[in-house]
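User: Hey, my collaborator sent me this sequence without any context and asked if I could get a structure. I don't really work with proteins. Can you help?
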Amino acid sequence: MADEFAKGLGILTGGGLIWMVLSGWFTTPGFEDTQLLGEIPGNLDTYGQAAIMLREVMFWFVVLGVLTFWVVIPAIDQLREASS
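Assistant: No problem. I've predicted the 3D structure and written it out in structure-token form, which is a compact way to encode the shape of the chain:
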């Protein structure tokens, strides 16, 4: 079980760091404004749009990855042990 926890933690920290960096670059209009969750600017070039898409992908990768390694896989292991 410790390796599943470590994999989930790695996904959480790595993906969360990438999400925070991209959010800081693109959705933080100023220090006194809403940070990391501000509006996405409308005048982005191709690389900016790709970065926003990567930001959304990383968010869902973190959510689904953590749930998979911390909830789904341990639950499947518990069900296998209970049925044996």
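In plain terms: The CA atoms of residues 27 and 33 lie 10 Å apart. You can pass these tokens on to your collaborator as they are.
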